[in-house]
Amino acid sequence: MTEKTSAPRRRFLKKTAVAAGSAGALAAPMIATAQPVALRFQSTWPAKDIFHEYAQDFAKKVNDMASGRLKIEVLPAGSVVPAFQLLDAVSKGTLDGGHGVVAYWYGKNSALALWGSGPGFGMDANMVLAWHNYGGGKALVEEIYKSLNLDVVSYLYGPMPTQPLGWFKKPVSKAEDIKGLKFRTVGLAVDVFTEMGAAVNPLPGGEIVPALDRGLIDAAEFNNASSDRVLGFPDVAKNCMLQSFHQSGEQFEILFNRTKLAALPAELKAIIDYAVQAASADMSWKAIERNSADYQALKQQGIKFYKTPDAVLRAQLAAWDKTIEKKAAENPLFKKVLESQRAFAARACQWQNDYTVDFKMAYNHYFGRGAAPAKKG
C-alpha cells in the first residue's frame, strides 16, 4: 500500500532538504588549491659521491612529507655553478638552495671554518652539532652570514666520522714527512698543513684525483672510505693514513635562499626543519654501514692503511694553536666563535669523556687477538 503525502507536507520536506544541503555546503572544509612549490638545489659534490646521495636523501624526506606541495630537485656540482660558487649562487637566487660544507666558505670569513676544521677543543662531530644547536653556534653562523650581506638560511646537520689524514705515495712516519708536500685540503686545515710545511692547494672534490694522477699534488685528503673509493683514490695512491685532527668534527650544510624560504607556508617550513633532523640521524647511520663496508673493500684491493703516528697528531695540535691565535687576533668574529666553542667543550667533553666506556676493550674482547672463537649454532 502506497502512503499518500499531502501537498503542504511535500513542500515542507523540500524546504528542509534544501536547507540541509546549504548547511552542508557551508560546513564542508575548503580544499587548498595552491600551486606546488618547486625548488632547484645544487650540491658541491660529484653525482657519484655518497655526499650527493646524502643531499638527495634530505630532498626526498622533504618531498615525501610535503606530499606534492613542495618539491626539491638536487643537481650535482657544476650543473649550474662550480662547487665553490654555490653560496653566492644561493644568495643571489640563481639557485634556491644547496648542499655543501661551511668550510668551503672559509675565504669569505675564516670563522666559518671553525664548524669543521681543527680539533674543536676535543669535541667530535656530533658534539659540534650539539654546540651549534644548543650552545650558541646557530646564532653565530647567522651573524657571520649577515655581516657578509648573504641572503641565505643555513641548516647544519650530518655529523661526519673522523676523517683520515689522507692518501700518500708512502706512509707518513713523522711530522717532518709533511714538509714540502704538495697537499690538498680545505678550510682552516689549509693553515694547519701550511704551518706544518706543506704547499696546500684547496681543490674541490671532483678535481683531487685527476690532480694526483697528473702529479700536480703529491698527497690529499677528502673525507671517508666511501667517497675516497668512488672518487678513485685507490687508483692513484696506495697508502692511507687514518686518524687526524685537521677535520675531526665536520658536518654538512643545507642552504636556502632566505627570500624563497620566507615565502613558504609555516607548515612547509616545519617540514624542512624536521627533515633536517631526520636526515642528520639517517646520514650518520648510513655512514657507518657504507664507510665500514667500503673500508673492507679497499683493504681487499690491496690498499695499505696506517694509524697516523701520535707525533704527527701532536704536531697538528701545535700547528692548530698557532693558527687560531693568529686568526683570533685578525678577526673578532673568529675569536667570538672560538670562545663559544671553548666554553661548551670544557663542560660537554668532560661529561662525555668521564661517562663513555672504552669500546675498544669490548671490541678486542670479541675480535682481537686471543679472543674466544664464536660458538657455532
Q: What fraction strand?
A: 5-15%
Q: Please estimate the helix content.
A: 40-55%
Give the full name of the CATH homologous superfamily of the largest domain: Bacterial extracellular solute-binding protein, family 7
Main beta-sheet strand count, sense and barrel state = 5 strands, mixed
Helix-and-strand structural type: alpha/beta
Q: What does it look like?
A:
The strands form three sheets. Strands 2-1-3-10-4 form a five-stranded mixed sheet, sandwiched between helices. The N terminus is likely disordered. The chain has 377 residues and is α/β, with parallel strands linked by helices. It folds into two domains: 165 residues, D-Maltodextrin-Binding Protein, domain 2 (3-Layer(aba) Sandwich); 136 residues, D-Maltodextrin-Binding Protein, domain 2 (3-Layer(aba) Sandwich). The chain has 14 helices and eleven strands. Helix 6 crosses helix 12. The longest helix has 35 residues.
Give a brief outline of the structure.
This protein is an alpha/beta fold. 49% of the residues lie in helices and 13% in strands.
Question: What is the topology?
Answer:
Layout: H1 7-27, E1 37-43, H2 50-66, E2 70-75, H3 86-92, E3 97-100, H4 125-134, H5 137-147, E4 152-159, E5 166-168, E6 182-184, H6 189-195, E7 199-200, H7 208-213, E8 219-220, H8 225-231, H9 233-236, E9 239-242, E10 251-257, H10 258-262, H11 266-300, E11 304-307, H12 310-330, H13 332-355, H14 359-367
Parallel strand pairs: 1-2, 1-3, 6-7, 6-8, 9-11
Antiparallel strand pairs: 3-10, 4-10, 5-9
